[in-house]
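Lecture 7 notes: from sequence to structure.

We start with a single chain of 512 residues. Read the sequence below before looking at the structure.
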Amino acid sequence: MKNIFIVIIMSLFFASAFSQDVVELKLPKSDKVVIKLMFKNGSVSDPSGKEGLTKLTAALITSGGTKDLTFSQVQAKIYPMAAYSTTTVDKEVSIFTFEVHKDFLNEFYGILKGLILTPSFDQKDFDRVKSNQQNYVDQVIRSSSDEEYSKMLLEDFLFAGTKYQTMVSGKSESVKSITLDDVKEHYAKFFGKNRLMVGIAGNYSTDFRNQLLNDLRTLPDAAPYIETKQLAAQTDGIDVQIIAKDAFGSAVFMGFPMDVTRSSDDFAALMVANSYLGEHRKSYGVLYDKIRTTRSMNYGDYSYIEWYDNGGSNMLPPPGVPRLTNYFSMWIRPVQIAKQLQQQYAELKDVKIGHAHFAIRLALREVDKLLKNGMSKNDFEATREFLRSYIKLYVQSPSSRLGYLMDSKYYGKTNYIDELDKLLAKLTLEDVNKAVKKYWQINNMKITIVTDKSEADELAKSLKENTYSPMSYSNLVKAGLPKEVLAEDEEVANFKLNVKNVTIIKTEETFK
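Now the structure, written as tokens:
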């Protein structure tokens, strides 16, 4: 590692006429070059009634042709190069990522340049890309993963009335209304040089860098970027939304607005508390231990202090989704419903609801314990040391390193991972417990539950009335549990939640 000469340059160039940010990561011994183009024009740029337009525009740019090449010709040319390209669109930014072997850089760059500067916007390509996006909002999000569905529903619920409400892919009717002319106009208005941050990593020459920046200078000026926080309304009590569909379990996502991002030093303190509570895809967290390991209720249970993109697939938090507005959340992966328990165990034939109410109570009770008691010294030290090593895995590849450097600049930092390690090193237990009390609570939040139609009414009644919700074990499992677990079950089953409202919605009524 020490033999790799790394130069990181963050600067403004053509300052007066071309307010473009450049982030460089020189890796002279690398055999690849990575180029990232981050435009400050995520889904918050979508016009009302055309939600999903930014996503569709960005997708069409890299899934279409250029003025000289059709989409098929582009694919035929880049296939032998084993070049990689992807497009990600989130609430605040759209990012194009290109990766190619250094030996093919010049040849590949001609295609990259054509896609970004002179996209063909062909009608057939538009119809294909739009059809895929329409299918996603109409069918895929509702049927492929109830876990991901519950996450999207929570944002829709939590940020109602703001630009953060709608899925990046849009709504059923809004996507239908998008035309090719809308895409062309949106590209001209929002994909301009004054909204662009350029990232370059790997083994490239100064001449190539200069050519790239000079070519991108020909992009038009976009509409001025205005930084605006999309603040969610504070909830009075716990507001629950139950989505009824054909489902094999109850997927739960719950959260509340939190006024802190990576730009604040408090974020490091919350990272420690969050990791202790429920680090994504890690089995040592309190939620995972209590819900999965001890009680075998589901596959996993985690907490988050910022948006975690595509958590069902990503083992590590990916870069490229920086946000101005944040929220705390907990993800309870599907737990069993009453119908399943009744069919599997004769002794549970009279169960009215499955494990969702108990699991929600258990999770919120653990947060409440953290608020009241704080972390212990030993837990703090162990979690902090884990994080100091773990965050280095975020930047294993040139692409992820470059991505985090660009995110750093977005948040007003220089090198977020290095700076975070220094913050963690000097962090105290008092800092963590103080941050938890400052930013977290359990009485005012929104909860989305995707569950089976057979479960919805009884679950809604139980939540609204704060009904006693005992854990339902088979006789065999219960017989093998320690007495302290069963005693804790009783406390959880009676733990009062500040539920003020419960609404049942049919799945077909969502994201219209």
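Residues 169 and 359 are 30 Å apart (CA to CA). Keep this in mind for problem set 3.
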